[in-house]
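Researcher: We're teaching a course module on how sequence relates to structure. For the next exercise, students receive a sequence and then see the predicted structure as tokens, so they can try to spot secondary structure elements on their own. Here is the exercise chain.
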Amino acid sequence: MSERYISVNGELMLANSLSISASDLAIQRGYGIFDFLVTVNGKPIFLEDHLLRFYSSAQSMHLPVTLNQKELIGAIDQLMGKNQLPNSGIRLTLTGGNSPDGYSIGNPNLIISQSPFNYQNQVFENGLKLITYEHQRQLPFIKTIDYLKAIYLQPIIKAAGADDVLYFFNGLVSECPRANFFMVTEQNEVLTPKENILHGVTRKHLLKLKGYIIREANINIEMLASAKEAFISSSTKNILPVTSIGGKQIGDGKPGPITRNLYEQFKQLKGISF
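Model: And here is the predicted structure for the students to work with:
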């Protein structure tokens, strides 16, 4: 297989030739942002939504983007044409830039990378087990490269026999480290936390699906005990059922009918078939 290419500040280069200065704030302080989208049959999915969030995150973090939106789309197209990966994940990373003192923002580096990606239907059927943990991410509305707590918790998640962690803070459920959370109430309403979260692109489109009341709401952690169904969403996961939280089974421990219906609707919306 030929080597993959990446785009660095608008220029193509071999992925294994990338080098970042040790003075970059991404290395010095973990300061930077990113966004991640998938391509299906050579088409970037929800590209405008991802770019809107990317530029918003950059502005919020005081990081200038040297390419405008049209130029950035051109750089993505150029990279896709070079790599020839029709089903892939594309990551846009904007670093804090080379800092003269290890603390001041420098000139950011814009890195676009692409890797093969395919959805696995079996993951849906198996469902996920979550643990809960009290934590509130810094600047939750920004998609930063800071995943310190999530990575720190990996041994604890594995020791519990779980797949991921669901954050809560002051009694309110928020999100998973890399996904938004949804629950189905006894009245068959689909709720998703509305505050102190990253507003996911997949979440945005799920809120528009038909057939159910799907809305943002404050979810007390005590409400999880009465959930009929639960699932998480993200660009890479689409919709994945949650079958237990904190060791307590959700529903009958299998993907529920509402989750399945929304999953099928979203697959059609995204153009995925398997």
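Model: If you want an answer key for the exercise: Residues 50 and 227 are 30 Å apart (CA to CA). The radius of gyration is 19 Å.
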